[in-house]
Amino acid sequence: MHKIKLLFSLLCVFLFLTQACVDTYSVSIEGSKKYLIVEGTITNVSDQRQIVKIFETDDQSDFVSTEFSKTIFSIDNEAIPLENIMVEVYENESIVYQMIEKAPGVYEMPSGFFAEVGNTYQLKFTTTDGLKYESSVEEMLPVAEITNFEVKYNEEGITKPRLYNLKIPTHDYYLDFDDPAEEVNFYSWSWTDYEVQNICHTCQQGRFFTKEELGTATGECVTDDALHPNNIYDYYCQGFCWELFEGEDIQIFSDVFTNGQSQKGKLVAQVPAFQSNSCLVTIQQKSLTAGAFRYLKLIEDQSIKSGSLADTPPAPIRSNVVNINQKEELVLGYFSASAVKEVRHMLNREGITGIRKDNLFSILNNRDPVPETDGDFRFPIPLAPCVASETRTPVAPRNWQFGI
Amino acid sequence: MKKIVYILLFIIGGFNVNAQLFCSGQVLDSLTNLPLEGASIVLNHQGKNSGVKSDAEGKFYIKLPYADNAVQVRYTGYIAKWIYLKKGVSLIDGMIKMEEVSNTLEQVIVSTKGFDQNVRKPVLGANSINMKTLEKIPAAFGEVDLFRSIQMLPGVTSVGEASNGVNIRGGTTDQNLILIDDTPVFNPTHMFGLFSVTPPDAVRNLDLYKGNVPARYGGRAASVMDVSLLNPDLTRFKAKGGISLISEKLMLNVPIVKDRFGVYVAGRGSNHDVILPIISDELESIKTKFGELVGKAFWRVNDKNTFTAMGYYSSDYFETDLLANLPNVVGTTTYFQHNTLNGSAKWSHIFNEKLDLQASVIVADYKPNIATKEAETGNPIKLESGILQKQIKTNLYYQTEKHKTEGGLIFTNYALNPGRLNPGVSTSVNEIQTPSEKGNELAAYIDDEFAISDDLAISMGLRYSYFYNYGAAEVRSYRVGEPRDDFSVEQVTSYGIGEKIENYGGLEPRFGLRYSISPKRSLKFGYNLMRQYLQIVSNTTTPIPTSRWKTVDTNIKPQVSNLFTAGYYHAFEDDIYEATLEAYYRSTQNIMDYKPGADFLLQQFPETQLVQGQSKAYGLELMVSKKKGVLTGWANYTYARTFNRVDASVNASELVNGGDWYAANYDKPHTFNTSLDFNVDEHNSFSFNFVYSTGRPYTQPVGFVSYLNSLYPFYDQRNNERVPDYHRLDFSWNIYNPSMKKRRWQGRWAFSVYNLYAHKNVYSVYFKTEDSQTKAYKLQILGAPIVSLAYNFTFE
Fold first, then answer.
1. CA atoms of A254 and A292, how far apart (whole Å)
2. Where does the pLDDT of residue B480 fall: very low under 50, low under 70, confident under 90, or very high at 90 and above?
3. Beta bridge partners of A117
4. Rg (Cα) of chain A, in Å, rounded?
5. pLDDT for B82-100, tens place per residue?
6. What is the rounded CA–CA span in Å between residue B356 and residue B404?
7. What confidence tier does A13 reach under pLDDT thresholds 50, 70, 90?
8. How far is residue A311's CA from residue A291's CA, in Å, rounded to a whole number?
9. A contacts of B481 (beta carbons < 8 Å)
């Protein structure tokens, strides 16, 4: 009995160090103000779109915790794009580039623009209300080469709440680089995984018809009342199709304690083993300006590393974009410039047990594909085109190796 | 129950009305024969009280009128005694042996410091709490805890259970001067706030000054917590000790030369983490150890001279992979470690019964560090820091019938190591040393307590303090009107070793007034000014042990606090009950606040991370206590607010909440505390605590933005919401001497339940984004009832 009491009390002492004393908390936050969001990074990667997104939050949007998982969401959390405004980027404070609106609120640098290390970039725009905004002048600082990388299979992997809490093994990428001694360096890392996708369209209570069959601009689902309302058909891709997965963690580093030293084994990516097909993993090592590093560090401290016994009270994270007539206005997001060094690696997943070939669709949708069956209604069953989007491309990514 | 003691010995008769009558003697503990310093000797003549206080040797002297006299001797925690002297009779060198309350049914609890009761002393907001009281207050984990217990007093709060210090009347934790036997303590807790660093067996009492602060204290802006340790018993060998679920403790007292020279050592240690992996695999990575050791020697050279030497060591080690690593260092496990080594030597000399002198030398060495172990080699990369404070001080004390006067000089030297990154054998991390900070502080003070008439008494104190910092250092000046950063540097000035850089100073008046409406009712007013030259710069809700301390310098101005207090005091039913009502208003200049994203680690120019502002705090404290009887205890209600404002900067990014007033992290408007003790019989007592307070503020996001496919919160106004209210009930059952026999070995069992009804009090609310989902969480430190059992013993 005494021993049990002893154990119980000791457990309590140390409970505060574990997650056991942490519960979710329900909140309801009413939006009351509009905040401008400006997000964009100029890089020196030639085949990467150089875009700046300009949106504003909806002052009517309310954020609430969901009943069951307590995940915070907004029923109407659609940021509103700022359309048809003049957006300019000043290079070295002299050359002006007009950005072109490619989608609502998404502005792209003109073709032929190529950024270079050592140049400075500044964003300027005027809203339709006549408000003038300017970013700070951001220099594209050089970045160290990735001297080596190592891939380790991690059977434990990660749990993805968004993918039905599936535990997925990963391939972990570790980088080595030599930090230059001459200057202060700030780093960030991002990665993209290109996975082969072979299902390109899904119809509920309907069938897919191509644009040629319909004579329309794109192919689409045509409702068929003869089918059960819950009936689902999935359509194979016409040609190659790649699904893009991007690393979602903020990964930053400063050489404040390590200036001029070789850094070994920095974990920068955990690529989920969705399927046994080979995939292309690109890892970017980027330079950051001090301001961009500070901005990302604050997001990290306030949103990712929060929950310690001695948190830093959260504070407004101010953008480097300011309303030049009203500097106290809180603007969100950051405009910056980064030099990039890249690793593009064809990852061969052969020999790994427990994962299936052509499994991407199943793992993303938590069910196997249901193709329309031959013969009952029509033959052949049409194939769906791979429509390019933010997360999908029909164009083979650079350095993709077929047949691996 | 009153005990009447007739002192027959040493009384010299006499009916000579011309001779000055007096009563003199020595106040001693009845068991230990130790002198009791500060006992009240009160004479009631024609319905009016007058009195004196016993000195360090327990001695006192009071003049008597030509009348039948009744002199009362009182000391907190002891039973009051009466001395009756017939008309014309004096008492010379009487031995007044005071019996401790714990041996009887009667007890005295928290009381005002001083020779007289709350009602009469011209001082506000001063409390004295002794070890006997502390032992009865239900304690978490069965560990008697000074800093947790004083939170039961009005005006003393904290940010929660894991707070590394307390907030007194709207002050930050580093605005409290914490002294253990005159030596400063820079980190008052073990294990991130769970336990106090005071060795329970060696503590005699704690004096808390949250209103009028005597002029002999200075250097902090809000309050003084003066912990006095016991003096060694010169008469006999004694052992004291105990065991609880957390720690073991032992104290040994040895009189080396009887009545002349004695020493004791007392220690407490906790090394129970070996059991953790048995409880849960998750706890396997946690290693924690803490402890203190104190030694004290007392030498009575002769009747006029005594020497005291004290050494104090405290250590804390805490390792886990559940805490964040040192930023920008690649590693796995992180540990925190902090050690304190303090020492003091004091000489007391008595010139005559009116005048005595104390001179002391003090050293305090605080060394915290945080280290991250590299994964492959296990090599720790350490961030080491430290404070070395040296002090010399003298104090003269002079007492006459109407005046109690003291004055003195204090010289303090500070040497701060703000941070050294020690890479050990690592090849990927550099050794970095932030330049050390050095400064000297000189202070002179005089304090007088003067009874103008029976109705009116005042205390007047004046302190002058002067601080300067000196080189070697490089000092930046910044362009006016621009944010202080690396880009607005106007000039860098180099100072050589020992060269004076910047100085600050000023007068610190301390004033108190008491006006008696009647013998049992009084009104008081007080004013205090305090200056602070050394402070913590940390932007966390509660400082962590490794938080950086910083002296003022060219760019960082000293904090100056003005406190106004007023109070009404009423004792009734023969002083069994007492009610006090105090109101205060405090305004502090140059408080520290932080730019968003401030980082002080190895920062050579912390002024680039700081902004200074103002703070205002006000409150009303109502306390009712019952001091004697089977049921004793107190209840208090406090209404208190604390607001800060940072509006000095012209740069929008440096203003907090746009330069408006905002609630401080520890702003809790309503607090209700009650602590009750039932003395059932001489072997059993039951105690209860109930605590309620408004939840403290936290910052809730005003919306969420999507970045890298994740929803991240964004914030606008600081402290715009509050965590749920805090409340808790504790219980303890103390069993004294269960064998019920008078033996040299006496045991005491303390069974306690902290948080009896298991209320999950929220320590903090925070928002976290994981795997592209954002949730709000509440962190609860002690969410379950904590049952514990402790055994303590004394052997005499």
1. 12
2. confident
3. none
4. 25
5. 888 888 888 888 888 887 6
6. 12
7. very low
8. 22
9. none
Structure tokens at A349: 């997943």
Query: Quick one: how far is CA B381 from the chain centroid?
Result: 33
Pairing verdict, β A262-272 and A166-178: antiparallel
Size of interface A-B (CB pairs under 8 A): 262
Residue in the structure block whose two tokens are 């944010």: B483
CB-based contact A209:A238 (threshold 8 Å): no
| Inter-chain residue contact A314 with B715, CB threshold 8 Å | yes
Could you say which DSSP state residue B491 is in? Answer: E
Q: Rounded to whole angstroms, how far apart are CA atoms A247 and A190?
A: 6
Can you give the length of chain A in residues? 404
Retrieve residue B666's tokens.
Answer: 């520890």
Alpha-carbon span A347 to A397, nearest angstrom: 14
pLDDT value at position B283?
59
What HEC string does B221-273 produce? CCEEEEEEECCCCCCCCEEEEEECCCCEEEEEEEEEECCCEEEEEEEEEECCH
* Residue B483 and residue B654 in contact, taking contact as beta carbons nearer than 8 Å: yes
CB atoms within 10 A of CB B344: 22
- Residue A86 dihedral angles phi and psi, to the nearest 5°: -90, 120
**Three-class DSSP labels, B12-47:** ECCCCCCCCEEEEEEEEECCCCCECCCCEEEEEECC
Chain A residues within an 8 Å CB radius of B431: none
**Residue B625 contacts by C-beta under 8 Å, 6 or more apart in sequence?**
B109, B110, B577, B578, B579, B632, B633, B634, B635
The rounded distance, in Å, linking the Cα atoms of B134 and B202 is 13
Structure letter (DSSP) for residue A302: I
Q: What is the DSSP track for A169-225?
A: EEEEEEEEEE--SSS--EEEEEEEEEEE--EEEEEESEEEE-HHHHTSSS-EEEE-T
Type of residue numbered A9: S
Task: Return the H-helix or E-strand segment holding B148.
Answer: helix B146-149
To the nearest whole Å, the CA of B260 is away from the closest chain A CA by 44
Task: Say if strands B631-645 and B610-626 run parallel, antiparallel, or are unpaired.
Answer: antiparallel
Query: Is B345:B388 a contact under the CB 8 Å cutoff?
Result: no
Instruction: Round to whole Å and give the CA distance between A249 and A247.
Output: 6
The residue ranking higher by pLDDT, A301 or A83, is A83
**Cβ separation of A247 and B708 shorter than 8 Å?**
yes
Q: Is the peptide bond prior to A380 cis by the omega test (within 30 degrees of 0)?
A: yes
What is the rounded CA–CA span in Å between residue B701 and residue B714? Answer: 5
CB nearest A63 (choices: B596, B704, B779): B704
Lowest mean pLDDT among A123-132, B115-124, B167-176, B465-474: B115-124
Q: What is the rounded distance in angstroms from the CA atom of residue B404 to the CA atom of residue B389?
A: 30
Q: Are B640 and B633 in contact (CB under 8 A)?
A: no
Q: How many residues would you count in chain B?
A: 796
Query: What is the rounded CA–CA span in Å between residue A393 and residue B1?
Result: 92
Residues B540 and B548: beta-carbon distance below 8 Å: no
Q: How far apart are CA B341 and CA B197, in angstroms?
A: 12
For A117, half-sphere exposure in the C-beta direction (CA atoms, 13 angstrom radius) is 11
Residues 6+ apart with CB under 8 A from A112: none
User: Looking at chain A, which residue has its C-alpha nearest residue B599?
Assistant: A294
Query: Which two three-digit tokens encode residue B60?
Result: 């006192």
- Identity of the residue numbered A54: I
- The phi-psi region of residue B378 (left if phi > 0; otherwise alpha if psi is between -120 and 50; otherwise beta) is left
b/e sequence B751-790, b meaning 16+ C-beta within 10 Å: bbbbbbeebebbbbbbbbbeebbbbbbbbbbbbbbbbbbb
The ipTM (two decimal places) reads 0.81
- From A8, A17, A33, residue closest to B787, measured CB to CB: A8
